[in-house]
Amino acid sequence: MENYTLGNREIWRNQFHDLLNEFQEAAKLNENDLLVIGCSTSEVTGNAIGTQGTFDVAEMLFSELQSFHQRTGALLAFQCCEHLNRALVLSKKTSQKYGYEEVSVIPVRHAGGAMAAYAYQHLADAVVVEHIKADAGIDIGDTFIGMHIKHVAVPIRASLKEIGQAHVTMAKARPKLIGGQRAVYEQSIDNNSCT
User: Fold this and answer.
1) DSSP, residue by residue, 17-30
2) pLDDT tens-place string over residues 94-145
3) DSSP letters along 94-111, please?
4) Is the CB of residue 132 less than 8 Å from the CB of residue 34?
5) Is the pTM of this model over 0.85?
6) How far is CA 48 from CA 23, 37, 76, in A?
7) Euclidean distance between CA atoms 17 and 175, whole angstroms
8) Residue by residue, what is the 3-state secondary structure of 169-183?
9) Distance CA 94, CA 34 (A)
10) Is 134 helix (H, G, I), strand (E, B) or coil?
């Protein structure tokens, strides 16, 4: 049985909207960036991951993510659950942009999860791929998205830590720092001089 009311759903929508705004302030994503979303709708409603997935909550979160995409241009990838080896749903256009190889599977609520299944049904020309290297990620309900974020992932802290009952973590990627003691990572007058 789903553990929420329509009133809760609107509270969660507002929480997610605010969280996305804070996330964007730190991540500064644009049309050149790929964002991976992992989500347990069961956890949002206060149930154990994988037990009470709901398309109602998935629709609400998807709607907010589509608005985020329209505001920022960031491309979206929705991670499936462990039963599909955490494969990802994205648009065919995005898959082709990055050269990702499609796989043959259709996410459903009990094998893929409600969020990925909803995304598959509502993204324009949706496809599934096995692996991506995203520029940032949002994990709602501890679904473990880290395997799909570029090295090096840097946590983004926000004032909200939960959507409904689901723990939320966020990260953005930064280029690896390479070199040793003499390596320089920021331009300054001192390190542009030979003296």
Assistant:
1) HHHHHHHHHHH---
2) 999 999 999 999 999 999 999 999 999 999 899 999 999 999 999 999 999 9
3) HHHHHTPPEE----BTTB
4) yes
5) yes
6) 25, 18, 25
7) 28
8) EEEEECCCCCCCCCC
9) 9
10) strand
